[in-house]
Fold this protein.
Amino acid sequence: MEEFQVAIIGGGIVGACMFSELTRKGVSCVLLEAASDVSNGSTKANSGIVHAGYDPVPNTLKARFNIRGNQLYPAMCARLKIDILQCGTLVVTDEANREGLNILYERGLANGVQGMRIIERDELHTMEPNLADNIDIGLYAPTGAVISPYLTCIALCEEGVVNGGKVLLNFKVDKIEQQGDNYQIFAQDKSVSAKYVINCAGVGANAINALVNAPQVPLKYVKGEYLLLDKSQNGFVNRPIFPLPTKAGKGILALPTLHGNIMLGPTAIPCEANDTTVDAEGIAQIKQKVELSVKKPNYKKVIKLFAGVRVISGDDFVVEHLPNTHYFYTAGICSPGLTAAPAIAEYLVDEMIKDGLTTAPHTFVSRKPYISTEKLSKKELKELIKQNPAYGKIVCRCERITEGEILDALNSPLHPTDVDAIKRRVRPTMGRCQGGFCLPKVIKLIAKHYGIAEERVCLNGQGSEIVK
Amino acid sequence: MYKTDVVIIGGGPCGLAAAVGASKAGAKCLILERDERLGGILTQCIHNGFGLHLFNEELTGPEYAERWKARIAGDKNISVLNNAFCYSIEREKDGFLVSAFSGDGLVEVFARSVVLALGCREKPAGAINLCGSRPAGIFSAGCAQKLINIEGKKVGDKVVILGSGDIGLIMARRLVCEGSQVLGVYEIMPQSGGLARNITQCLKDFNIPLYLSTTITRVVGDKRVTGVYVAPVNEKLQPITELEKFIPCDTLLLSVGLIPEIEIAGDLGLEFNPVTNSYTVDEYYQTSLAGLFCAGNVLHVNDLVDNVSAEGERAGECAGIYARSGLDMANRIEITHDEHIKYTAPKYIYNTHTGTAKISFRVDKNYKQSIIRAVSSGVEISKRPAPAVTAGEMQTLIIDKSKIANDLHLELLVI
């Protein structure tokens, strides 16, 4: 049985940050993911915002890890060679709610958020020409940013792998046994052994805790539905536009994605643990509420509906060490979890070291970023195609993705096998036709790469075969 | 740098005809085709019914494409580049710079004029706000057609089809022929948007039920589709959820509308028509930017390929004349129309007082008996009776340009 110092259960953003943090410290480490790819739960379906930190109540874990995470993101993205859109964020409202905005501003100051300011009507409407007419004032936080949450998670895992870690996909943990000093972790017929275990299972947090008799955390699940608009709507808003938050959450926002789409959402609807369906009521609610902050978006340009589940535990994150064991667990990492994840990992790794985890000198290996031919100059592109003609063959028309880029994704460190996994890495089927044109070609490329029949190529995990 | 008179972007039915037209005008032209072969969507349309108007024969899609390929074969004015994906059109002095991936490199072509012949794409599930889950087994009808007819794959065993446009109808029959069970075609509108002959030949002849004023409210299934909920809709097209019913199936085909592929010219500031979701053109099929032409399904989604070819040929000819000697663009008139007519293509006509002009248009709904006519300065200058006009079918009216005075107005008179 393969033995590691640390086993991380769950390949969402928290697990991925742990994996990267530990491998860079020379710790031998395995990441166990139940699905066929990392970033397949809450991490793939959220707003993708690095929050500035004015929302959480001061002196909570949320506040602490949000602020620290926000500080860590720019350098982390640079290290991972992924994009971050440092556009700032805006919370907008009308004159009648000025007091509410001031409270948020004060809370931001208490949390240590840098550079915030209240912006008055004229300047606000110049910054964002598509704000609703009734909007008078806004809280601008320049340290807010937009990232691709799934690509961030994938990049962290890839970095972990090139730095000596191991990722096991389709590893659905169903048993954990203590054997001497180590935990044996089983998934059907497979198993690994590790001295430390960290539960980053997100929606599955309690199921994993139950395997080691760790406490059950009171969890509730809240679904967030989104509408994604075509890239032709790029510029509708220049940064995330939030309404004034309420007790129910941060409200329904309009934001640009890293790739130039516009996203509207999320709703906040109590749901079952894995319910990512979208309802007509949810769509209606998004349309109604987003128009309180911005002018009517062009709904004819919607290309995709999706939903993600946030896992909530009371008012704060749960980040714990089970006493007298080497078992650590996280739960209820809802918003601002994406922002907080690098800080949670930094904290937990420190705690593990205090608990006796040994690190080793390690020479850092930088991950290889995905080439995006769309971002290259004509000269660079010509040179690239000369080296490898696959970069001259277009597969996905809408996103202008070449065969070379798809082959790069197939050859990447986690060896993704599914159409959606390729989509999350290099974007074929992500555009305005949603795969109507390129799906058959992508299926072919995957089948050829792995030497399998096209009938075995899945959309997202076993059982999601596309053609018969 | 490659130089030519006319660049034609797209080698489907419109682009092939445009090449014939450009050559007829004595111009040299280059077709940039993104696929490995010419023919566009025709290559996967193995059913018959193409060419009834142009060739007076019922051809299959590939046969129809072959007729046009034969017409350009050996024509020294016409060059073709397959595997060429055009990604930018830049306006330059006296012409356009068109850049394309060429399969093994990049090509740049300078041309005096450009014909957009890019066709259209299908609306995805998101565009119709399809609710429920997002498992494997949801295909646009055209994608399924490609998988079946070109790749030789089966897409599912028990299939539900949403949308009764022509592709949906054609695919219903195709799936049955390939051994799948088609449980029904669901159409949100009170009438099918497809051709009457397709309803008979594709559904009735195969005992496939068509449910009008009914839509799919939710998709069910985690990894693969396990079923859909359907419900009738009220007059506002809202589903009556109390009447929702579950249909177990493993596959859903969407034939819910086509969108012109205009994005390549998105930065050129062309005049846009929200009704067609495309650019406006004059009688030469020229957009608001001189030298840039647009025809076929990228201009407006046609019901018959014969019309696409006719438009393409005319656009190519005009692009050729533009490149060689220039077009007469004096005395431009905007064609106006009444509320029964949704749009006209062309939108502008030049009052040259000679020759004829063909105006294509669609009406807002079905009419049993009507008259279509053109009026100029209060005088009726053209008219034809139009029995059984449907919203889906393209209408045309020929105008004698010598009769145009100062304006041109199209009307549909309901009898």
Summary: The CA atoms of residues 97 and 110 of chain B lie 5 Å apart. The first strand of chain B starts at residue 2 and ends at 9. Chain B has a mean pLDDT of 96.
